[in-house]
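dumping these here so i dont lose them again. two proteins, back to back, each one seq then structure tokens. dont judge the mess
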Amino acid sequence: RSGLPSARQYLARKYGELRKQIAKSNQHEFEQAFEKVMHQLDSVNYECAGLAMFARSFEGGRFFRVLQLDVPLRNRVTVDYAPDIIPLVMLQHNYGRFLQASISADKIEIYESDLGGGTLRSMAPLRSASSAESRLATATHMLERAMRANRRFEVIIDGEQALMQAVYNTLPGQLRQRVIQCIPRFASDTDEKLKNIGLLTHKRYREHLALHGLDQMMSNGQSIDRIVTGERASLKAMKSMAVSELYIATEDVDINRFSTPVKNDYKALIGLFCLAIRQDTPIKFISGNKLTRRGGGVACVLHEDVISYQVLPAKPGASLEMVA
């Protein structure tokens, strides 16, 4: 079920379950934080598809943050010393930022896609153009200007086959390299369908790019010595600030298979993601290969200037110091 009423019911049920599992010394902190979340839900009328709330009571300093999202989230509560940002990072992967240009005989529209929402950035009519050449020049100029203003974004183009292909061919070579897909628009296609195709195309492109980079490193005998696998070993390397890239196999990060309070392997993932964000370490998602499967779906690449690094096996039952 979706919507705020079902979210309130879910939270009320989870409160009763979690309170029994929280140590008595921490129950007051837990109750204060939970009370803040419930009060916020009761007093504010949110009009969004999803909500993420982070709450902390007295210990460590009061903290409360609400993020309103354009895409829904599965109901979930995590109690831990570090904020569980994994669902948000996964959302960012599934609904990454890119430009999508929709071209028809009437107009060209350029949208910025971010977390599932599409924002119209620019639009120009094409029907009034005096000739086919003028229509092509107007569409190409607008797309080129948008791409130069957003240099870090990949681009997807959809539209009528002939005009779309002509615009793509007219783009300068460097800009054309950033176009990852041209999607023909048919009469039965809706804007929503093309938007969803664009989202899926962009996600698969980023996974393929990350996997290709990791495979190249594995084929290099010297580079493979810089790869560490497994949640705990990667967390230790991250704490040492020795990591340049973090790789996550998407099929192994199913956050819904973990119970609450979280298990040790998920606690290690929380620590990894928090440290990666704090250290501005790129998090790259891949569809999985032998390396990440052997490492429990997690691998990291050490900085080139790390001369030697030894990962000691964790002792059975050893607890990990979490990052707040």
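---- next one ----
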Amino acid sequence: AYKSVKGESLMSQTILVAPGKNALANAVHLAADNESSTLILIDGANYEVKNTIAISGALKVVSSSWMAGQRMHPALMNEYERFNMPNILPASNFQGDALFSVAGMSDVEFSGVSMRGSHIDARQSVRYGFITDADNSFGDYRFSLNGIVAREFTQSNGAFFKGLAQSFARTGKVNHSLFDNVTGAFVFDEETDDEGRYNIEELHISNSRFQNSSGALVHLYRGGMDESTFGPFLFIDNSEFINNSATGAQEVLNLTGVQVVRIRNSHFQNNGNYIKLMNLKGAKKSISQSTVDKQDRITTENNAVIRGLTINNRKNNQTRRTGVVGFAM
């Protein structure tokens, strides 16, 4: 199901992964013996997962076209082009809450792949795409998602990426990606004892689109005070939030105790029944050079900044592009 194509050193290895049930799990297990590994997935192939795959250490999972430099933003692809990406999905008899769990001290990168939360023969979707390991407390981790498609993660109270209590992401980077029909995208809200702890230091989202989804698409929580910690920080640039809807009294961006927020060059359109887009509190929070619908609400407190905001009155035109957002790779 897999073979080494480069890097015979035990320190680093590149593995070409043939399609098939559990082939990806086997390759990840093999990669765990190396300090760092790259798994290349074949374009157009399906990689079914039977159980949650545990990731530890430094691991890259990339498509063969991405490795060859043939890259297009998923939001600009047609359905056939998206279908031709390597597709990671649960088997019909999948067991577990998530496709992947991420251990402490991991450095995880996925590029140019599609991830689905459901199998056509399964009764419901997987709850999470990624979840942190339950025993993640002994080291922080990092993740990077580039040019991916994530869709059909629709379980109630689920998310595409979920950080559990006691886990800590040093950085999360999301670039050139598409999130379609997910319930919650990036949720780091578990440290609710209000002692100043939180689950992620920096979350960077750029050149990405969130569409046809529900719930709080970014949910960051920090409660209480701890002067030895400085985050969380949220940076969103050149991204779109289109045709999403709330599943309760929610905000598109639910930000509690976030220390710095910088949103720029982004576009919010047709985001149904949320109580508001976001609340920005404090002088280090801002949204600038962005567009929103006429009925959208952004509330501010304590000198938060709104600058260069354009009101889009054509809320029913789902294909309208403002020119603010571009998806060049």
